[in-house]
Amino acid sequence: MLRRYDHAQVSEYWQHVWEREGVYETPDDPDDPTYVLGMFPYTSGSLHMGHIRNYAITDAHARYRRMAGDDVLHPMGWDAFGLPAENAAYERDTDPESWTRSCIDRMRDDLAEMGFGYDWTREITTCDPEYYRWNQWLFTRFHDAGLVEYDAATVNWCPDCETVLADAQVETGVAAETQRGDGEAVEHHDAAYAHAGGVCWRCGTDVTQRDLDQWFFTITDYADELYDGLDDLDGWPDGVRDSQRNWIGRQEGAEVAFDIDGHGAVSAFTTRLDTVYGATYLALAPGHDLVAELAERDDAVADYVESVAGTDDAGLSGVETDLTATNPYTGAEIPVYVAAYVLDDVGTGAVMGVPAHNERDFAVAADHDLPLTQVVEPVDGSGTPLPDDPYTDDGMLTDSGEYDGLASTAARDRLLEHDAAAEATTYRLRDWLISRQRYWGTPIPIVHCEDCGAVPVPDEDLPVELPEYVQTTGNPLDAAEEWKQTECPDCGGDATRETDTMDTFVDSSWYFLRFLSPHSEAQSASEQASGETASHFDEAPFEQATADEWLPVDVYVGGEEHAVLHLLYIRFFTRALADLDLLDRREPVERLINQGTVLHSGKKMSKSAGNAVAPHEYGAETTRLFVLSAAHPAQDFEWTVKDVSTAYDFQQDCYEMVRDFADQRQRRRREQAADPVRTESAPHDAYLEREIDRTIAAVTEEYDRFRFHRVVGELQRFARLLRRYATYEPPYLFAYSRGLRVLTKLLAPIAPYLAEELWHLLEEDGLVVEADWPEALRDVSNYRVERQLVRTTLADVRDITDVVDITDPEAIDIVVAAEWKYDAYRIAQAADPGDAIVGAIMGEERIQAHGDAAADYAADLADRSAGLEPVVDGERELDVLSQAAWLFEDEFDADVTVRRATEDDELAKKAKPNKPAIHIS
Ligand SMILES: [Zn+2]
Ligand SMILES: [Zn+2]
Q1: Ligand 1 centroid vs 200 CA: distance in angstroms?
Q2: Looking at the CA of 494, which ligand is closest?
Q3: Rounded distance between C-alpha atoms, residue 433 and residue 443, angstroms
Q4: Around Cβ 42, how many Cβ atoms within 10 Å?
Q5: HEC string of 31-95?
Q6: What is the pTM (predicted TM-score) of this model?
Q7: What's the CA-to-centroid distance between 498 and ligand 2, angstroms?
Q8: 579-591 confidence digits (pLDDT tens)
Q9: How many of the other CB atoms lie within 10 Å of CB of 218?
Q10: Cα Rg of the chain (Å, integer)
């Protein structure tokens, strides 16, 4: 037997036993499926503290639910494709695959060492052809369903990484700006699609623009559904839902046709049609078709367009053109500007400028001396900040012809009836650009044929595997000449393969489904040729019935940086798959938890900041216990050595206590001479038993709420109580051993190695990881009130001894109130505001019989009736305090009596429910 608990000496053994017993394998035929998932790691080389925190949360929850009787799926895999592997391979003169595989081996060992229990039979690796063939299969399904587009697009280009970047991979510094209430969609500079400016998220190089033919998933087809569905995601943090709303950026409004002499109508989008009478100019995006025409004959326009191309800091600059537009409502001729703040591809690329009622337009008007025309005024007749500032609130229309006097909302409806206006909705969300010009990703399964165009690779020819890696400055697939040359699947003629690979976010958009059927395979070409009719689902990346049974994922845990990409893509994929009849569910995740950040010296731990602590530096299990005990999962916390050693000490305390218990048992057996234990129960044993029940109730509740830090707090208190109990008097075997068993079980989800060791020392059967979750033996629904009663009574005794300066009390009398006071208390508690409480109480004969005392108490209750706390009944209060008497005896070294108040008792007058009278002598 170890004298001290040493995780390093036992971890390999328990890993071996867990694996041998297959304890983490998911049952095929679940009764009560619970899917617990942590965002799978990117294979970057080793685990960092953020991973540990993420996976400690899922592991604790998975273990808790498994012990509670659920069939739990808790899988792990590897997000293995991506540019960093190419960079790492380049630096180390190896290839991305070898480097990635070595990372995976190291990280798998790291995870095992931490004691995380995964069903490794379901491990998936996205760079395996068996995995990415399904990316390709899904791409062709999406293609057939019209969810794929191939378009020339101006894209963000990082000259250093030589790749296209998605919007969100461009750091503009304004990405966090949220939409303004009065704003039009075009105002969101962070919405820019291929809007130059900003730097590459990976390398920090200035991003430029290029035009390339690119592959897209048309996620915008689902914009409305993705937006509306957020309302029902009650299990998601509000912050993530808000981020997705902003990212989708749905804006309802109108398009208004402004006639431009000689050029026809130009459509402008607005959310404030009620201000249309106040439009004093029209602004066009530099990329607007009309601007290209203008630039050919107007040097000022041409110069302006050139000067703002590729910049993000054009601010509110603009250039006046020689055109005028007609406001269709007023007939007024207004000047036309070209201005970079209007984005080409958001809304219509044109906006009406209403300086009196819009912040930005107000600023533009000030620069260009454009008139302010107020057309909305406050309904209550109060003043506006005009002309010093715009008035941007809704109000009542004025100077708006036949619409005068209408409220803004009503006006927006009525103005739509005009021929020049039509209802319109715009979105910030753009289609998902999935093309990457890099090697380490899934080849897009397309063949380009001169005659047939872009032809999808047939299923039987999947996967299109990556060619051998070669170092090149550009795209290695483009350089793989032999791989590139192929036949057209349609006409058999010479053709070339698509050389773009998929954004790795495609891999992670459906991996949670693959975990459900990790071994579903495609039929080989020969099986298909043999004419066996296979059902549709034999050829799918997952079995639908299984997926429908397990989805949605019950708990998904990961970093909040994924609020808009990954977490939007999984919602899109799930819907697209449902529409392909591959799935019934339309939302993938029920409950989402974003774990907070681990800070060190006040900053986020990171290698580059030089403040990282390696997960094993202080022992793997101590570290996981510490990260769970430090804070609520969603909160940030600071890494301190002191708090880590508290976690370590707690492990040792638990171990010592159980080891001493096991030692004594061995001695009893060996020497036949017993250490003193009792087999008869005393009142303080009842206290322990009751506290065991209360601890089970409290800890279970905290596990349900993912408040592992409170679990640890409860268990530390409980361990201290067990220790105190065992030293107070020789323990009553039944109660004490149950206490140790319960402690061990409650610890098991957060300290699995330690718990197995304790379970073994306790000579219990089987493994604690597979044990049943403990249950309270008696009703503990009032556990909080009971604990509070003991706590405050102890505090009161301390106060009294302090105040009257009794250093060595001989006797402590604790007197519980007479039963009639509980009756009165309940009547007051049940009363509604405004009820005549005194009357109701005194109407009860058995209370009234106590005369003045009853009247005084009734008046007191009536005064306090709004703030009456829950109490247990008189019987229970007497029990609870009698059982707790030993705590008073132990602390104050005095004789303690706990009794019910009697009629002629001086103390009885003072005693109230939940507040016994105390006499100390
Ligand atoms: Zn870059
Ligand atoms: Zn062809």
Answers
A1: 5
A2: 2
A3: 15
A4: 19
A5: CCEEEEEECCCECCCCCCHHHHHHHHHHHHHHHHHHHCCCEEECCCEEECCCHHHHHHHHHHCCC
A6: 0.88
A7: 14
A8: 999 999 999 999 9
A9: 18
A10: 36
